[in-house]
From TrEMBL:
It comes from the Bacteria. This is Ribonuclease HI. PROSITE patterns: RNASE_H_1. Residues 141-167, 330-370 are annotated as: Disordered. Residues 350-363 have a biased composition (Basic residues). Residues 181-320 form the RNase H type-1 domain. GO terms for molecular function: nucleic acid binding; RNA-DNA hybrid ribonuclease activity. It comes from Corynebacterium sanguinis.
Length: 370
C-alpha cells in the first residue's frame, strides 16, 4: 500500500498560528478594539437566524465606547466594519492607530478589516484591553435575542443532520516517559476531535516526554481537554516532579478544574463535561497536590507557544491518521510527532527555565491559576 506524506496527513486546513500571534507593536497601539460576533436562531417563525456584533473600543482613559447591532438574513461582516469606522470617526482615530482582535473563526471579517487598513489578530488575546468587555457583553446579548412566544406558535425543533464521518481505520496511541526526579516541569495539553466518532488527547512536557491517545468517542472537546489535563497530572507524579506548570488553551476545561478545586465533584455531568471525566480529573489532582507544587495556566491556542503548538499538532495528526489505513499513515504520523517534539523542546532536550523560589503549599491546597 502506498504511504501518504506528512503534508497529506496534515490536510489543507489552516491551523491559524500566524493570525493569532501578538506583537509588541500591536500591544503598544493607542486604541484597542475587540469585535465579538454572535448568531442565534429565532424561536418562532420561519427558519432564520439573527446575527450581530459587539464592538468594544478602548482608547485609554475616558476614551471607551461600545456599539452593537444585529441583522437577519444578511452578512453582518461588512456592516460591522462600517460600524467600527463610524465609531472611530467620532473619536477622531485612524486605522493606523488601532489594533483589532476578532474570534479565530472570523476569517472573512479579518479580511475585510485588513482591506480597510486595520492591524488585525485572529484571537481574543488578553493583552487587548477591549477583550473582556466585548466578550462579557456578547454573552449577555446573545441570550436577549431569544424571543418568547406562545407554545403553539413556536417553530418545531428539528434534529440537526449529521454529516457522514470517515470510517476509523485505527487508533494511534504513543507515549514516551524518560525523565525522572524532575525539579520543575511544564506540560502543555491539547485535544482534537472530528465531533462524530473519534478524538485525540495529547500532552507534551518540557522534558521531551509526551503522550497521545486516540479513541472512539463522541465526547465534547471540553471532555477531551480535561482528559488531557488528567494525563498531565499523572505524568507529573510518575516522573517525581517537585513542581509542575500545566498549560491548556481550553477555557471550559480550566473552568471545570478550578470549580472542582473549590467544591469537589459529585460525579455528575456539569458544564457539558461528563461525570466520569470530572471524577478522574479530581482524583488525579488530589494525588498530585499531595506531593508537588501545581500551577494551572491558560495559554492562547495557536499563538506560537512551542509546547502548546506541539501538543495541538500531535493531537490533530493522530486524529487525522485514524481515518487512513495504519500501514499507509503510521510513518507520516511518527515523522510529524518527532518534528513537533524537536521544534518544541529543542531536539528533545529539556528547556532551560529560570528557577523561581516558591513557597510550599499545604497538603490538598488548590493549585494557582493564571
Amino acid at each position: 500500500m502506498e504511504k501518504i506524506s506528512l503534508g497529506t496527513l496534515g490536510g489543507s486546513s489552516s491551523r491559524t498560528y500566524a493570525t493569532r500571534e501578538v506583537t509588541a507593536e500591536q500591544v503598544s497601539r493607542r486604541v484597542h478594539v475587540a469585535i465579538a460576533m454572535w448568531e442565534e436562531p429565532w424561536k418562532s417563525g420561519d427558519d432564520a437566524e439573527r446575527k450581530g456584533w459587539i464592538i468594544a473600543i478602548d482608547g485609554g482613559k475616558n476614551r471607551r465606547s461600545v456599539c452593537e447591532d444585529g441583522v437577519a438574513e444578511r452578512d453582518p461582516d461588512p456592516l460591522a466594519v462600517e460600524a467600527l469606522e463610524a465609531e472611530l470617526a467620532k473619536l477622531n482615530v485612524s486605522a493606523r492607530d488601532v489594533w483589532v482582535v476578532t474570534g479565530k473563526r472570523q476569517i472573512a471579517l479579518r479580511s475585510l478589516l485588513q482591506k480597510a487598513g486595520f492591524d488585525v489578530s485572529g484571537s481574543f488575546s488578553p493583552q487587548n484591553r477591549a477583550v473582556r468587555r466585548a466578550t462579557s457583553l456578547m454573552q449577555r446579548r446573545r441570550k436577549a435575542t431569544s424571543i418568547r412566544v406562545p407554545e403553539g406558535e413556536r417553530r418545531r425543533r428539528r434534529k440537526a443532520a449529521r454529516e457522514a464521518a470517515p470510517e476509523t481505520q485505527w487508533l494511534p496511541s504513543y507515549s514516551r516517559t524518560e525523565a525522572r526526579d524532575v525539579n520543575a516541569v511544564t506540560i502543555s495539553c491539547d485535544a482534537s476531535s472530528d465531533t462524530h466518532s473519534t478524538g485525540s488527547v495529547c500532552f507534551v512536557a518540557s522534558t521531551g516526554d509526551y503522550e497521545v491517545e486516540t479513541k472512539s468517542t463522541t465526547a465534547s472537546i471540553d471532555d477531551l481537554e480535561l482528559v488531557a489535563l488528567t494525563k498531565a497530572l499523572r505524568y507529573a507524579v510518575r516522573v517525581g516532579a517537585r513542581s509542575a506548570t500545566i498549560e491548556s488553551d481550553s477555557a471550559g476545561a480550566l473552568a471545570a478544574a478550578h470549580g472542582m478545586h473549590k467544591r469537589g465533584t459529585d460525579g455528575r455531568r456539569r458544564g457539558g463535561i461528563r461525570g466520569n471525566v470530572r471524577r478522574d480529573y479530581y482524583e488525579a489532582w488530589r494525588e498530585a497536590s499531595e506531593s508537588l507544587d501545581l500551577t494551572l495556566k491558560r495559554v492562547l491556542g495557536h499563538s506560537g507557544d512551542p509546547l502548546n503548538k506541539a501538543a495541538d499538532q500531535i493531537a490533530y495528526l493522530a486524529m487525522r491518521a485514524s481515518v487512513h489505513p495504519q500501514e499507509a499513515s503510521e510513518a507520516a504520523l511518527k515523522k510529524g510527532i518527532a518534528s513537533s517534539l524537536a521544534e518544541a523542546t529543542e531536539g528533545g532536550a529539556p528547556r532551560r527555565r529560570k528557577r523561581r523560589r516558591r513557597g510550599r503549599r499545604g497538603r490538598g491546597q488548590a493549585p494557582k491559576t493564571t
